[in-house]
């Protein structure tokens, strides 16, 4: 599979504001709200480096259960690929179970079961436009910068 690079890394946290302040101070960056994604049970924000912070949206949802069982830490490692169909075929041919596949705007992605990928949810994404949508979101201030 042709991997173009790391797209983003998501870290599951208990306190979004506390985590945001820490990473903004350490990396001299600014986070932007991506908002709530009920289908994934997350509220998230991202910075221009591709660091995404996520918290559970629902107290008894799947993200809450993972946070309770495994604690805070890296939850998603997302790779940008040249051809998602080929990448998915290669992963599944190696016995890695796909857990989800779908579209979000110009982004097409697939996720793979963490039990098959050493405890990390691997995501493969293919963008169907040149500009990275998360960076576009930040440039256009669709996600708003957060203030203390």
Concise structural overview:
One of its GO terms (molecular function) is methylmalonyl-CoA epimerase activity. The protein is α+β, with helices and mostly antiparallel strands.
What can you see in these coordinates?
- With 148 residues, the protein is α+β, with helices and mostly antiparallel strands.
- The protein has one domain (3-139): 2,3-Dihydroxybiphenyl 1,2-Dioxygenase, domain 1 (Roll).
- The chain has helices at residues 16-27, 62-70, 84-93, 133-139, and strands spanning 3-12, 32-37, 42-46, 51-56, 73-81, 98-104, 107-112, 121-127.
- The longest helix is centred in the first third of the chain and has 12 residues, at 16-27.
- The radius of gyration is 15 Å and the shape is globular.
- 24% of the residues are buried.
Average pLDDT reading = 88
- Proper CATH architecture: Roll
- Beta content comes to 35-45%
How far do the termini sit from each other?
Answer: 42 Å
Largest sheet: number of strands, sense, barrel closure: 8 strands, mixed
Q: Give me the strand/helix succession.
A: EHEEEHEHEEEH
Silhouette: globular
CATH first level: which class? Alpha Beta
How many strands?
8
Q: Give helix % range.
A: 25-40%
Biggest sheet, spatial arrangement of strands: 2-3-4-1-5-8-7-6
**CATH topology heading:** 2,3-Dihydroxybiphenyl 1,2-Dioxygenase, domain 1
Overall structural class, as computed from helix and strand content, comes to alpha+beta
**Rg (CA only):** 15 Å
Note the total helix count.
Answer: 4
